[in-house]
Every structure is written in structure tokens, then in C-alpha cells.
Specification:
By secondary structure, the protein is α/β, with parallel strands linked by helices. It is built from eight helices and 18 strands. Strand 1 and strand 2 form a beta hairpin. Helix 5 packs across helix 6. It starts with a helix and ends with a strand. Residues 290-328 have a biased composition (Pro residues). Residues 287-329 are annotated as: Disordered. This is Lipase. Belongs to the AB hydrolase superfamily.
Length: 426
């Protein structure tokens, strides 16, 4: 082995020894009901910080194992058990070392093992990048010197541009992934139909991206199935290369998403449902309340004061969604469904869909004549008059392309209603 490789893996071994020493002196921080929960309770300031609570180290990965090597970043602490992992691949003709390496220590410091992949050829297409992402995860969990630090059941993929397209293709190939994140995901001639994915998916794109345009990303987003949690954040003023340099807006959205779906840590839901800080975000859509598969399912006995609860098992079979029968040429329609219910309360969700033309704002009215009341709304602004609840769009989800859709959710008291919501657009 070259001298540089020996030095690199000696560093890994030393880090393991240091981590073992810490394990003898540092009490576990994981909550008893979630063995994957890591670190102190998060705040807006902490998720926006450029470093999280964990010390990190990194090592070089030699070429082989199905990809052209790269870099691995990971927390030095071994007292908390294994960590979730994310493999990241760059875009067409790019090197991870040049464009995404800034993300490695940033993400690792929040409690993830990060594998940055260099591709076999810089001109590899999306399919090849998908193959190399999955090969990288297999290497990470089966034969890498840090395999004992990685939970093989908590894996994810991420990539930029053609690497983002490869990320989405990897999710289609491996449904066991916990999440996939596409950064301005696109590939020439690839429509990226995600209608069969089973993997929670986040798309992050740039408002001023002329390569992977907002309408292109909207097309991908529209194919994501309602049965799978997903979100789309469009960053104001960002272009196609904004993801290749340190991007605090991207990271304060990305970190909570990874925490929710890799760590089942619903303490982070408050930052995305609703979006707690919309500074620098021109559009945001999500399937709140963003419950990770296998995550908490029982709702609280009383609604929380600031964040929507995890989806609760309904006490009875929820009624089918009800949709406004659209008059000819209707600007928009609204569909209601009961997400979950418990004694004295329920969680509802409304999907707003534009008609045959784009709209720049919407208003939904629900008749709650059964005595229900709404206590909290996310992704919308609530007003009430008698038994009518009116919800209007917020700044980031009022503009919808033709046939485009968005959702808002709410907590209510009483028996779940069976409303027929109406939708109008200015």
C-alpha cells in the first residue's frame, strides 16, 4: 500500500481508539424510546450552524469496489452506537473533491457517516452514477474500515445534477433506502418518473437554474406518489452551481430532513412542518407531517403548541378524500383527507390543485358545521367566520403551474369532518 494510504488508515485506527476512550467517559445521549436519536434538542440556531455537536474526522477511500474512490467523513464518538450514512455523488464532469467536499464534515458533525464518491469516469451518466452510489453504500457497510460505525439499515443517497438524477434512479432500484435527496436533479432525455418509488424523497433546486429549471423539477415532483413522504424546496436566487459551494440555506433544510428519515428523529419535524425559516426560500412543498417509515405513530393526547404531531392511527376508518366537483374552467380544486384521529381530535390535510392554467394564489374554504374547530395550520394562513374555516396560501406555495399541486395540514378538535372544500384563485 502506498505510504499515503497507510497514513490514512492509521488515522482511522487512532480515531477508533480515541472514540473507545470517550465511550468510557461519555454517557449516551440517545433517548430511551429512539435508539437513533443523537445530540441535544435542536433549535433554529443549531440547525443553521455550520457545525453540529459531534467532533469528526475523515479518510481517503482508494479506487475500487465499483467506484473511483473518494472520501469518508464520520463522527469520532463511538459511545452512541452506529450512525446513519449518506453517499453523495457529483454532477456530470465534476469531482466530489471540487464541488461537494464542503458538505462532508458539515453533515458528519450532525451525526452521519458521509461517503463522497468520485465516479469511474467524469462523463458517467445518471444510470452509472446510480450504480456507483449503491456500490459505495455496499462498500461502506461491508468492507470499509469504518463499517462498524455504520448502521446498514439506515442508508441514504444524494447527488447534484446528473448525480441527482442518479440518486433518484438509485432509490428506484433499492427501496430499502431511508431517503434520497436530489440537488437540482436532472439528466438530458431523462423524464425521471418517480411514481413507483418507495423511498422518502427531497428535491432542492434553484430559482434561477437555467439547466435544471423550476418547471423541470416541478415535473419530477408531480410524479412522486402520495403514499411516500416527499418535499421540494426551491432556493431564492440560486442557480445550478449554487450547490457546489457552501450553502447555509440548503443545509438548514437538508439536516432536519436527514435527521427525520435516517434517525427517526421527529424533534426535527418542527423545522420543516411548517418551514420554520423561509428566508432564502422561494417555494416549499411537503407532505407534512413527514413521518418516517417505522417512526412514532401514536399522536399526543393533546395537540402540541408549535409542531404538528406524527400521524396517528385512526380510531375508525377515515372517510375517502372529498373533492370539490370542479366547474368547467375552475381555477383550482381542493381535496380533503383525514390523516389520523384520536379521542377529541384529528389531523386533516388538503391538497390544492391548479386547473388548466397556472395560478398565483389560492383560497380554500371548509365547512365545519359539525362543531369542529381548527387549532393549528401549516403551509397556510387560517381565518374563521362562524363554522367556515378559510385557509389562504403562504408566500412560498401560492404560485402553482397548470395542474400543479400543494398541500396544507391542520390540527382540529372534535370528530373528523367530511367536508367538501371549495377552492378559488384571485
Amino acid at each position: 500500500m502506498p505510504r499515503s494510504g497507510i497514513v490514512t488508515w492509521l488515522a482511522v485506527g487512532l480515531a477508533a481508539v480515541l472514540g473507545l476512550t470517550m465511550a468510557m467517559t461519555t454517557p449516551p445521549a440517545a433517548a430511551a424510546d429512539n435508539p437513533y436519536q443523537r445530540g441535544p434538542d435542536p433549535t433554529l440556531a443549531s440547525v443553521a450552524a455550520s457545525r453540529g455537536p459531534f467532533a469528526t474526522t475523515q479518510a481517503t477511500v482508494p479506487p475500487g469496489n465499483g467506484f473511483n474512490g473518494g472520501y469518508v467523513y464520520y463522527p469520532t464518538d463511538t459511545s452512541l452506537g452506529t450512525w446513519g450514512a449518506v453517499a453523495i455523488v457529483p454532477g456530470y464532469s465534476a469531482l466530489f473533491a471540487n464541488e461537494e467536499a464542503w458538505m462532508g464534515p458539515w453533515l458528519a458533525s450532525f451525526g452521519f457517516v458521509v461517503l463522497g464518491i468520485e465516479t469511474n469516469s467524469r462523463t458517467d451518466g445518471a444510470d452509472a452514477r446510480a450504480t456507483q452510489l449503491l456500490a459505495g453504500l455496499d462498500y461502506l457497510t461491508r468492507s470499509s474500515p469504518v463499517r462498524d460505525r455504520v448502521d446498514p439499515n439506515r442508508l441514504s443517497v444524494m447527488g447534484h445534477s446528473a448525480g441527482g438524477a442518479g440518486t433518484l434512479l438509485a432509490a428506484l432500484r433499492r427501496p430499502s433506502l431511508k431517503t434520497a435527496v436530489g440537488l437540482a436533479p436532472g439528466a438530458p432525455g431523462n423524464s425521471l418518473n418517480m411514481s413507483t418509488t418507495q423511498v422518502p424523497t427531497m428535491l432542492i433546486s434553484g430559482q434561477n437554474d437555467g439547466t435544471v429549471t423550476p418547471s423541470y423539477v416541478q415535473g419530477i415532483y408531480n410524479t412522486l406518489p402520495a403514499s411516500v413522504e416527499h418535499a421540494w424546496a426551491e432556493l431564492a436566487g440560486n442557480d445550478h452551481l449554487s450547490f457546489t459551494r457552501p450553502n447555509p440555506t440548503e443545509m438548514r433544510i437538508l439536516i432536519p430532513w436527514l435527521k427525520i428519515f435516517l434517525d427517526n428523529d421527529t424533534r426535527y419535524t418542527q423545522f420543516l412542518c411548517p418551514l420554520a425559516d423561509s428566508t432564502g426560500v422561494s417555494r416549499y412543498n411537503s407532505t407534512c407531517p413527514l413521518v418516517p417509515p417505522g417512526g412514532p405513530t401514536s399522536p399526543p393526547t393533546t395537540p402540541p403548541t408549535s409542531t404538528p404531531p406524527p400521524t396517528g392511527p385512526p380510531t375508525s376508518t377515515p372517510p375517502p378524500p372529498t373533492t370539490t366537483p370542479p366547474p368547467s374552467g375552475a381555477a383550482c380544486t381542493a381535496t380533503y383527507r383525514t390523516v389520523g384521529s384520536w379521542s377529541g381530535g384529528f389531523q386533516g390535510e388538503v391538497t390544492v390543485t391548479a386547473g388548466s392554467a397556472a395560478i398565483s394564489g389560492w383560497t380554500v374554504r371548509l365547512d365545519l358545521s359539525g362543531g369542529q374547530s381548527i387549532s393549528q395550520v401549516w403551509n397556510g394562513t387560517l381565518s374563521t367566520s362562524g363554522s367556515t374555516a378559510t385557509v389562504r396560501n403562504v408566500s412560498y406555495n401560492g404560485s402553482l403551474a397548470a395542474a400543479g399541486s400543494t398541500t396544507f395540514g391542520f390540527l382540529g378538535s372534535g370528530t373528523p369532518p367530511v367536508p367538501t372544500p371549495t377552492c378559488t384563485s384571485p
